[in-house]
């Protein structure tokens, strides 16, 4: 009887925390849109964040995307060969990378690298009272720290997606060139032949949504950090897990919407 | 200035019947306190008695459950964001752990509040003000260093300089000598007195350090369990038979 009561209380607490967190995140998003268009605009800090986020994520994205492009092409070659359809390989790779793999891979790598970085940075500022120090100096920390970072990630992720897709395609080309002796131009012509403008719009839309999610989750978990220094690690961890989960949910939702 | 000689007119901070709780923890229970122009008050009390909460209420970092705070003639609870920001520029807050921006060097730490609040300030003017403040705290040679390169005492000094650069009328010090050796503490105590002389500020000083309270304050206030139990000169506060106050005094000066 006692165990049942305890389980009930635990379930209620977990449910409570869940709804409180959902409310907090939505309130954070509301607050973002409330202040984003109001001056002052911290352009210099935004540019600084674009540079930091973009440049720091590039090496990791370069390596992962090259490998994914290469491996995906290699793995797809076998089944296509069985049907005598290897000539379709560049098109298949183009569709897969541009429409899904590029945006998803960039977003997941960025969720691990960027979201955790932002979250840990803000959480450490929170627990060392640097955010309070801004507040008492009449500086709006939300505007300076959160808005600039969210906008920077939202802007940079689509650019990184194009970069990631290009590097993945290069990886794919390495495989195709090795087996089929296809020229660089012929490969890209074939790869893009099956893609439409709608596919590009879908990729850009997804990338921007993923970027916004990574930015909002990273900043919100960091900004609300508690429990001293242990809160910093916890905030970074929560930011990565939640960003990744939301990215997958958004991926399926956007794909469904574009294919209605 | 003794409490009795002060008039209501020259009160810069008035704390009226303030209550503050966090969940079931009642931190402040009916605090009344007035800080007059040109006066330094030290607030003493054990950890967890709500000293830091009290000064956070003054700058609107926290809101009271009950009661009101009149800071520089304005009721803090009734101010909108812009008015609160304007008030905050007139009140300096020096944090317990210095709270220097660790991604910025010392120059940038001091320039940041200026850049954000004084839109039309020239680079030359800003540099002059930063040099002046660093001279005031005796750390001009650290201008290009990062906060992580500084000692605890130096961080406190830079934190005070960063606060002073906005030329506040009131200073709130949160444990300015905590975690410092006696010599560095003495330097910070001198600095607090110099700030009062040079910048004509009124101050609330949260501290456990009785030497700091004695040397920097015109009045000393003692908190116990969220209530103000004594408000007088340092000498008067500790000339008492109250067991708690005696214990506080003995532990500071004997142990």
How would you characterize this protein structure?
The complex is a heterodimer of chains A (260) and B (255). Chain A is mainly alpha-helical and 260 residues long. Chain A has two domains: 1-35; 43-258, no CATH class. Chain A has eight helices and no strands. In chain A, helix 2 (43-82) packs antiparallel against helix 3 and helix 3 (89-127) runs antiparallel to helix 5 (141-180). Chain B has a domain at 1-90 and 172-180 and 208-255: 3-Layer(aba) Sandwich (Rossmann fold), CATH 3.40.50.300. Chain B has nine helices and ten strands. Chain B has a six-stranded mixed sheet, with helices on both faces. The longest helix of chain B has 18 residues, at 182-199. Chain B is globular and about 55 Å long. The A-B interface holds A 40, 121, 124-125, 128-130, 132-133, 135-139, 144 and B 56, 59, 61, 85-86, 88-89, 91, 93, 95-97, 99-103, 112-113, 116-117, 162, 166.
Question: Keyphrases for this structure?
Answer:
heterodimer, A: 260 residues, mainly alpha, 2 domains, 88% helix, globular, B: 255 residues, alpha/beta, Rossmann fold, six-stranded mixed sheet, 10 strands, disordered N terminus
Structural class of chain A: mainly alpha
Largest sheet report of chain B: 6 strands, mixed
The CATH topology of the domain at 1-90 and 172-180 and 208-255 in chain B: Rossmann fold
Largest sheet of chain A: none
Runs of chain A in which pLDDT lies below 50 for 5 or more consecutive residues are none
- Helix-strand category of chain B: alpha/beta
Low-pLDDT ranges of chain B: 1-6
In short:
The complex is a heterodimer of chains A (260) and B (255). In chain A, 88% of the residues lie in helices and 0% in strands. Chain A has 260 residues and is mainly α.
Helix-strand layout with pairing:
The complex is a heterodimer of chains A (260) and B (255).
Chain A: H1 2-35, H2 43-82, H3 89-127, H4 130-136, H5 141-180, H6 184-193, H7 197-223, H8 228-258
Helix pairs in contact in A: 2-3, 2-5, 3-5, 3-6, 3-7, 3-8, 5-7, 7-8
Chain B: E1 11-22, E2 25-36, E3 40-45, H1 51-58, E4 66-71, E5 74-75, H2 81-89, E6 91-94, H3 106-117, H4 123-136, H5 152-164, E7 170-174, H6 182-199, E8 202-206, H7 210-216, E9 219-224, E10 227-232, H8 234-238, H9 243-253
Parallel strand pairs in B: 3-8, 3-9, 6-7, 7-8
Antiparallel strand pairs in B: 1-2, 1-4, 4-5, 9-10
